[in-house]
Write a structure and sequence with these properties.
It comes from Granulicella tundricola (strain ATCC BAA-1859 / DSM 23138 / MP5ACTX9). This is Putative cytochrome c family protein. GO terms for molecular function: electron transfer activity; heme binding; metal ion binding. This protein is mostly helical. The chain is built from four helices and no strands. Helix 2 crosses helix 4 (107-115).
Length: 118
């Protein structure tokens, strides 16, 4: 019995440590967002929320954007950078339509500021 526990305890500990490494911090509470981030939240709600969740996991029509900049890569496998996310928003990718012609002045910068809070 003791021999079995010598094996089981390290395996359980390793599993717990590895699982914890994949969790992302929670998003910044809405009440703590600055004005630019709030404008980004509003733009997200009108332009992105129909296809993407922002504050919860799971796919809607597209992937959840919770922790998008806190993960090592985007769902495509590319690095999560402002440039890559901006290009995806402006030009679209796969089933995501291009939003470049639908953005008001400042929307992209506001959206990026908001996405960094997730």
């Amino acid at each position: 019995m003791i021999e079995k526990m010598k094996f089981t305890v390290p395996v359980l500990l390793a599993t717990a440590l590895l699982t914890g490494c994949h969790s992302t911090p929670p998003p910044t509470p809405l009440a703590q967002l600055n004005p630019q981030q709030m404008r980004g939240h509003d733009a997200f709600q009108t332009k992105c929320a129909v296809c993407h969740y922002d504050r919860r996991t799971g796919d809607l029509h597209g992937p959840s954007l919770l922790g998008v900049f806190k993960k090592p890569a985007l769902p495509s496998g590319a690095a999560a950078t402002d440039e890559r996310v901006s290009a995806t928003i402006i030009h679209g990718r796969n089933l995501m339509p291009a939003q470049g012609n639908h953005l008001e002045t400042g929307d992209l910068e506001d959206l990026l500021a908001y996405l960094h809070t997730l």
